[in-house]
Amino acid sequence: MPAWAPPPSIKEKPVCILGAGVLGRRLAVLWASTSRPVTIYDTSPSALKSSRTYIADSLANHCFSQGTHPGHVSFSSKLEDAVQDAWMVIECVPEDLDLKISLLGRVDRLVGKDVLIATNSAGFRSAELVSEVFHKERVLNTLYYIPPRNKCVEMMSCGYTSPSIIPFLVEEMQDIGLRPIVVPDSVGNGSLSKGMIFPRIWGAMKKETLKVLSEGVADPEEVDVLFRDFFGAERGPCEMMDEVGLDTVVRSERSRLPNTREGDGFWGARGEEYVEWLDMEFVRRGKLGVKSGEGLIVKKRRGVQVKKVKEDTAAQEVWKEHSVDLSGL
């Protein structure tokens, strides 16, 4: 593969994040927390607006807890503007194969060949997403979970990734407090790896959890109580699915159902029933988890007057003025 060298002065160049959803805005907080500039791209004005509010609050809190200073965060609804001058572009859009292939291809045509292109897809290997990418040597998987609280991030080559990229990116991630884990893109017999580590463990957990719930064996709170008690975990699987977003869970797991991915019968014969149950009972009723205020564990407090929190405290105003650029909204 062609040799790759990092662009100069990367700490002065922005990290561009494609998608202002639950994960994208969290990644913005993480990468901006050590004085690095960040740009967020999304075609949805409401997503950009809500992410701006989240970042203005969360970035201040995270930097305070880490003893760091924030970088400049800007927003854009135009891809050409968002990726300009970036040293790395991180794709965080929904788990739609065609969408990801098209978007990575567009980014490849817009940025210089030394700019890294990373996908956060949990359901697809980056090798499946590069058919429209010419400079495949700068593409890889970087799978974050729920940053900045969760520090681990899995990294895997697309099969073409330049050997110098992963060790370089490991150092950059460690610099912002992450714990990178490098996953081989092939296994001992020379065949391609089936993907990242945690999604397979987490997928098995989701499968069994949805099976228990859909069959009426237990309710979500009972499942989480048992899980926390036995494993000593802070959160149970139902709470974690609520935090990720139940609509995101449904989209992601449908990509892993039998016959939709060659050689990946992860969910088994009845998997579609469990995913459909989650969709019918929660997602189609607007119960999406934390983002909607109601989900498997999250419950709306009906009839309770919630005290309105003043939107902009003096501290937030300072952070917004100096760290969060509103001109792209």
CATH architecture of the largest domain: 3-Layer(aba) Sandwich
Quickly count the domains.
Answer: 2
* CATH homology-level superfamily of the largest domain: NAD(P)-binding Rossmann-like Domain
| Shape estimate | globular
Multimerization status: single chain
* Mean pLDDT across every amino acid position: 85
Number of strands: 8
Distance between the termini: 40 Å
By DSSP (H or I, 4+ residues per run), the number of helices equals 11
Named CATH topology of the largest domain? Rossmann fold
List the strand order in the largest sheet. 3-2-1-4-5-6-7-8
- Largest sheet geometry: 8 strands, mixed
| Element string (H = helix, E = strand) | EHEHEHEHEEEHEHHHHHH
User: Would you tell me the structural class of the helices and strands?
Assistant: alpha/beta
Parts with pLDDT < 50 across at least 5 consecutive residues: 259-265, 301-322
What is the CATH first-level class name of the largest domain? Answer: Alpha Beta
Query: What Rg, in angstroms, do the CA atoms define?
Result: 20 Å
* Proportion of residues in β-strands: 5-15%
Helix content: 25-40%
Question: What would you say this structure looks like, in words?
Answer:
- With 329 residues, the protein is an alpha/beta fold.
- It contains 11 helices and 8 strands.
- It has 2 domains: 10-192 and 316-323, NAD(P)-binding Rossmann-like Domain (Rossmann fold), CATH 3.40.50.720; 198-285, N-(1-d-carboxylethyl)-l-norvaline Dehydrogenase, domain 2 (Orthogonal Bundle), CATH 1.10.1040.
- It is 39% helix and 11% strand.
- It has an 8-stranded mixed beta sheet, sandwiched between helices.
- Helix 2 links the parallel strand 2 (38-41) and strand 3.
- The relative contact order is 0.12.
